[in-house]
Amino acid sequence: MKNSVQKNYLLLAALFLTIFLIGFGQTARAQTGGTMKIKLYFPKDDPDADNELVAVERNIKRTNRVADAALRELLKGVTEDERKKGLDSAYSVDSIVTGREECSRDKMKPLAAYYLGVSVKKGTATVNFRAEAECYLQSAAFMMSRVMNPIDATLKQFSSIKEVQYALNGKVITEWDA
Question: Got the DSSP string for 105-164?
Fold first, then answer.
């Protein structure tokens, strides 16, 4: 009889452990799966709008790296529906405005191709690009603001980000040549 009681306790313990692990696994999946809504900011496609930004909402895959995911989504540019609503983005090669040979449209890729990531420390987001992104970031002043203002606004929607700075290959740019 003693062996059967021990077996029952072991079976009961195994059953509770199984239920616990199944429940825990579902909770973990629920926290990392699914989608989340974010805001992205795009300028109006109107030269008289003075770089006025408009917020649009998009659903993205749920992540703990929300700032990075938001920038990756922003750098994709506007959708066809957003374009029809009068919004624009400056992240395609057609948007580059410089006189520099290395920045010619036939030599460049969209800005997203040069994006390395974003880090956030003490309220400052550092957006890191490969060196080729300088053609987007160091262009005519009007174009610089069309590239940077949407990035700044998209990141500053998050309460942990107060300031945005830009880096090329990890080196923060402190002076701009617009």
Answer: GGG---GGGGEEEEEEETTEEEEEE-GGGHHHHSS-HHHHHHHHHHHHHHHHTSTT--EE
Q: Helices 66-75 and 141-156 meet at what angle, rounded to 10?
A: 140
Least confident residue range of 24-28, 135-139, 174-178 = 24-28
Contact yes or no for 70/105 (Cβ under 8 A): no
pLDDT, tens digit (0-9, with 9 covering 90-100), for 9-58: 555 455 444 444 444 444 334 455 799 999 999 999 887 777 789 999 99
- Is residue 68 helix, strand or coil? helix
For 152, phi and psi rounded to 5 degrees?
-60, -50
Average pLDDT over residues 106-130: 94
* Domain boundaries defined on the chain: 35-172
CA distance 130 to 120: 18
Reading the block at residue 107, the tokens are: 């030599």
157 burial (CB, 10 Å; 0-12 / 13-18 / 19+) is middle
Q: Are the C-beta atoms of 154 and 39 separated by less than 8 Å?
A: yes
